[in-house]
UniProtKB/TrEMBL annotation:
It comes from Ferrimonas aestuarii. The keyword Nuclease applies. GO terms for molecular function: endonuclease activity; exonuclease activity. InterPro entries: Endo/exonu/phosph_ase_sf, Endo/exonuclease/phosphatase. Coiled coil: none annotated. This is Endonuclease/exonuclease/phosphatase family protein. Residues 313-332 are annotated as: Disordered. Residues 27-379 form the Endonuclease/exonuclease/phosphatase domain. Keywords: Endonuclease, Exonuclease, Hydrolase, Nuclease. It holds the Pfam family Exo_endo_phos.
Length: 389
């Protein structure tokens, strides 16, 4: 879905490395803009919670999110956990017009003429007993992707550059069993957790996987956006660990046209990414090479992929000081002490100029923006400056 406008992006804020000439800044940010961040303790979630706060134009948490974006000023950004709102005027347009286009704390407004938003699997009712509790409840653990209402934990992409909408590919409906050698989901006694009828209908993507071709002054790259499920909140069968691993694997296979031959997108197009394609993988992947609960080698499928440039690793002083006794602290991208969020460009056609994590330390005047999930999010914005060759 597309919004056309003529606004010009302002200069980069001085608190983040200035974008080099002829480069673009690409970012990912899990913004925690779902109803659970707005609910009163003990009260049910309101699926309209984000819509109501976007209309206000002055909600503190959303204002802080917008200020962070204005300070970092990415040219292209994926927002994870931005609830899906079908009416664009109530959803992403309201965020742009009521927050991003309003100067916050002396920052220049920032406008994105183009965006992409689409339904996701989270909270979409299924007829299956996906969580294995003996009842098919439709939502929660039995939704196609865990969620308490349709569209919870959705995704949005904002861009200064045109998104080639006719060539967008999504894999929301891709069936898990269609992936060769999919991760096994077994009970402790070695039996299959799912019966065959259920397994044949399960979708792989917990939200969706999007390939958005973006044109930057005649040079194209593919933004590969996703948000795999956390590898926890399950039982001994580790079904979420298996799903997290294979959601990450989907992109690892997709990077090769031949290796991804089994993949069929939501429009029926088969195969992976064409050879010699520029791409940037973005998102909250809920997996770290160093710590956490993901299956061994999960994120390494991307970090060690021969077509992916995963070095240098983005870091922050704030992350380092947040966990001073942990040698991995500087690499963390989440307040719960893990590297979970990634901006990974292709080796082909892209030079990685600089990258980082927006995490002001406790002694910074900007620490107010990242004090906790209520202030903005339990994740930090990760950015990379990229030159397209």
């Amino acid at each position: 879905m597309l919004l056309l406008a003529t606004s010009i992006l302002g200069a980069c804020s001085s608190d983040v490395t200035t974008t080099h000439n002829q480069t673009i800044r690409v970012a990912t940010f899990n913004v925690s803009m779902d109803a659970s961040n707005y609910a009163q303790k003990g009260q049910p979630l309101d699926p309209e919670a984000l819509k109501a706060r976007l209309a206000l134009g002055n909600h503190p948490q959303i204002t802080n999110i917008a200020e962070i974006i204005q300070r970092v000023r990415p040219d292209v950004i994926l927002l994870n956990e931005f609830d899906y709102i079908e009416n664009l005027n109530d959803g992403i347009r309201a965020f742009i017009e009521n927050y991003l286009l309003r100067p916050i704390q002396g920052q220049k407004p920032i406008h994105y003429p183009y965006f992409y938003v689409a339904p996701v699997n989270t909270g979409e009712p299924s007829p299956l007993d996906i969580d294995g509790d003996g009842a098919a409840s439709g939502t929660g653990g039995d939704a196609w992707g865990y969620g308490n209402y349709p569209g919870q934990y959705g995704m949005v992409v904002l861009s200064r550059y045109p998104i080639q909408m006719s060539e967008v590919r999504s894999f929301k409906h891709f069936l898990w069993h269609k992936m060769p050698n999919a991760q096994k989901i077994q009970n402790p006694d070695g039996t299959a957790f799912y019966d065959e009828a259920t397994w044949q209908r399960l979708r792989l993507s917990s939200k969706s996987h999007w390939d958005l071709p973006i044109d930057v002054d005649g040079k194209r790259f593919h933004l590969l956006a996703a948000h795999p499920t956390p590898p926890v909140f399950d039982g001994d069968e580790d079904r979420n660990g298996a799903r997290n691993y294979d959601e990450i694997r989907l992109w690892a296979d997709y990077l090769s046209e031949a290796r991804g031959e089994y993949l069929v997108d939501d429009n029926g197009k088969q195969g992976g990414l064409a050879a010699d394609s520029r791409f940037v993988i973005v998102g909250d992947y809920n997996a770290s090479p160093d710590e956490g609960d993901s299956r061994a080698g999960a994120i390494e499928q991307l970090l060690a992929h021969p077509l992916v440039n995963a070095k240098p690793i983005p870091t922050s002083r704030g992350g380092k000081l947040h966990t001073p006794d942990n040698p991995n602290g500087a690499k963390h991208t989440a307040g719960w002490r893990i590297q979970a969020d990634y901006v990974l460009p292709s080796k082909f056609g892209i030079d990685l100029i600089a990258n980082g994590v927006f995490w002001p330390a406790a002694d910074s005047k900007l620490h107010r923006l990242v004090r906790g999930r209520g202030a903005s999010s339990d994740h930090r914005l990760v950015w990379a400056d990229l030159k397209l060759n």
